[in-house]
Amino acid sequence: MKERLLSFYSNNGPPKHIIIYRDGISESEFVNTAREELTSVMAACRSLDSEYRPTISYVVVLKKHHTRFFVQNECDAKCVLFILLLLLLLLLLLLLLLQLE
């Protein structure tokens, strides 16, 4: 971390904000890992300048989801299409009713 910070610092000056994206931390390891990594980042910042205190955002990505963006088989695709057509039909009926009033 210190090498990357030093490289950025020498080319651009000190960053005002540091964002760390982290993946692969289990919930049981989260607190200890975050504490160690943030301590390391803050030490690297202080090694450049004792008064240097950028804002640090620590983002951890967990993979606990089962969301699918694509249908898995033809039957699912037909069901999705059928539901979309029904919604469109309901919308058209609603528009007709509003025009009749």
From TrEMBL:
Entry keyword Transcription regulation: no
PROSITE patterns in the cross-refs: PIWI
Piwi domain residues: 15-76
Transmembrane segments: 79-100
This protein's record includes keyword Nucleotide-binding: no
One MF term in the entry's GO annotations: nucleic acid binding
Keywords: Membrane, Transmembrane, Transmembrane helix
UniProt cross-references to SUPFAM superfamilies, sorted A to Z: Ribonuclease H-like
InterPro entries documented for this protein: Piwi, RNaseH-like_sf, RNaseH_sf
PANTHER family referenced in this protein's UniProt entry, alphabetically: EUKARYOTIC TRANSLATION INITIATION FACTOR 2C (PTHR22891)
Protein name: Piwi domain-containing protein
UniProt organism field: Anisakis simplex
